[in-house]
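Backbone shape codes:
===
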Amino acid sequence: MHIAIAGNIGSGKTTLTTLLAKHYGWEAQFEDVEENPYLDDFYSEMQRWSFNLQIYFLNSRFRQVVDIRESEKDVIQDRTIYEDAYIFAPNLHAMGLMTSRDFDNYMSLFHLMESFLQPPDLLIYLRASIPTLVDQIQKRGRQYENNIRIDYLNRLNERYEAWISSYNRGKLLVIDIDKNRFPDNPEDLGEIINKIDAEINGLF
């Protein structure tokens, strides 16, 4: 079984991935942040490094999904390949931070990769307002995220909502992070677990 968690920067994907992996005994697959050689450069000079960063993520996540399906284990994944293609790359292109030539090349590669992939059995989307995202980004204190602009987060949120509203690849569970503070509240985490159990068991 392949469970994936989607959501904007600071929405709590890694935390929820860790908590659910522990609860269910699933194997956790995390986003390659610490080893990513482009992140610092990207946040310092987005236009120069946007294409490099997105190709790195695309390659990393494609390998991750292939490994998940080949392992035949129950895996929970922190962020999906779809978010790169439908949120981050188009946003960079729209902001003038990725050329049309690079964007078209990127999307062509993504569609080729997608033809070889199965979507997750359940997608969990963490919906959060900008104040919540900013608060959680500040709390974790990653240096390369200090330069993230509010309008950048807002653009991403708009694209996430558009993508989720038309998502039809499989089961979808939406969690409102403004109301559900699962990292600090066991009852809120229990509510998420109950909803996942219902989805997995096909109760609704």
User: Anything to note?
Assistant: Strands lie at 2-7, 27-29, 75-78, 122-127, 171-176. Residues 46-71 form the longest helix (26 residues).
